[in-house]
Amino acid sequence: MPKRSIRSHFLTERKSRSSQNCADSSSEIQRRFMCSGLFRDARCLALYSAIHNEVSTDEIVGQALDSDKSLVFPRVNGEALEFVAIESPTELISGAFGVKEPKGCNVIPVEKVDLIVVPGVAFDQKGHRLGYGRGYYDRALAKCQSPCLKVGFAYDFQLVEELPATDYDETLSMLITESQTLNFSAC
C-alpha cells in the first residue's frame, strides 16, 4: 500500500478517536516515558507540540522544567526544523501548520540533543515511522549524533507490522505506546 494511502487511513482513524480517549492514552504513554530511565537520564530533551489528536507531551513539559532539564521544541525554518530552548510553555506560539512553536531565539543544534521525542502518523515493528510526508523530522533525525535516542510516541492502533521505507526514512531507537515499549536499538 502506498504511503499516501496509509497516511490517509491512520489520520482518519486518529481523528475519529474521542478527545477523552486520546487524553487517557496520552497520559499513560507519558507516564510510561517519565517512569523510565530515558527521562531520568536525559539532559537535553526535545519534545513536540501535539496537533490533531497526536499523543500529547504536555505532562512531560512540566516535569522536565521542574527537573532542570534543558527542554527544546522544534520550529520550522525553511525546509528544516530547528530546536529552540524554552523555560515555560507560555513561550510556545502558533506557527507553521498550526503547530505551537517556540518564539525564542536560543537555538540549540540538534546534535546537542540527547533524547528527541517524535510524533508520527503510523509506526512499524522495525522502528520506521510515517510522518505527514514533508520529511522535516527525517532530516532532523539524520543529524542526531550517537548516543541521541530517537523515541516515538504512538497509540497502539498506530503500530503495524511493516511500513514502506526508503533510505531517507530515519529509524527510531524506541517506540512507546499505552501498552508497550519497543526497543529498536538492537536491530
Largest sheet: 8 strands, mixed
Instruction: Tell the overall outline.
Output: globular
pLDDT under 50 segments (min length 5)?
A: none
Please provide the ordered H/E string of secondary-structure elements.
Answer: HHHEHEEEEEEEEHEEEE
Total count of helical runs of at least 4 residues:
5
Please report the total strand number as a whole number: 13
Determine the CATH topology. Answer: Rossmann fold
Architecture, according to CATH?
A: 3-Layer(aba) Sandwich
Strand order of the main beta sheet, please? 6-3-2-1-7-10-12-13
What is the helix fraction of residues, given as a range?
Answer: 25-40%
Please compute the radius of gyration using only Cα atoms: 15 Å
Would you mind describing this structure in some detail?
The chain is α/β, with parallel strands linked by helices and 187 residues long. It has one domain: Rossmann fold. Helices cover 28% and strands 26% of the residues. It is built from five helices and 13 strands. It has helices at 3-16, 19-34, 37-41, 58-66, 136-143, and strands at residues 44-46, 70-77, 80-86, 92-94, 100-102, 107-108, 115-118, 122-124, 129-130, 149-153, 159-160, 174-176, 181-183. Strand 1, helix 4 (58-66) and strand 2 form a beta-alpha-beta unit. The longest helix has 16 residues, at 19-34. It is globular. The chain starts with a helix and ends with a strand.
